[in-house]
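**User:** I keep going back and forth on a fold encoding question. It is easy to fool oneself when nobody else works the same problem. Could you pick a protein and write out its sequence and tokenised fold? Could you put it straight underneath, so I can go through it closely?

**Assistant:**
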Amino acid sequence: MRVLGVDPGLTRCGVGVVEGVPGRPCTLVAYYVVHTDPEDELPLRLLHLDRSLTDLVAEHRPDSVAVERVFSQHNVRTVMGTAQASGVAVLAGARAGLPVQTYTPSEVKAAVTGSGQADKAQMTAMVTRLLRLPEPPRPADAADALALAICHVWRGGTRSKLAAAAERVRRGRSD
């Protein structure tokens, strides 16, 4: 399974692509950080993000997209930009006809490190180790996006299979 993970942000949006199957180590395909200029008008920034993510989906042809779920932060301005970037990421996956799954930061941390309370340094170290990279992916937005993709391979693949099985059972009972 190939997964494109997105750590949404309006100024810096991390994107990571991995391949793998549940229970096995993943393989790095690529990672990026899409930048937008804070001096630009919001519509231009969102358009740049949309075009960049759409191009990356077309280039890497993932089987699914994993996006960090936006949670409440103290800085309303930051959470608004993150939410807008998240919406663009979800749209890019949906427009390509791909399943899109969102994960909370603690779900990703638990999947990758075993602890939902892991800090950025622990996350980056585990992503580096799990993908067998010679050095940590930089900046942290890229490492976070790769963690999202790994989380989806390990958890989302299983979640999707369970949902498909439940749907088959549901259809079988209604016939």
Notes: Residues 2-174 form a domain with the Nucleotidyltransferase; domain 5 fold (CATH 3.30.420.10). The chain has one domain: 2-174.
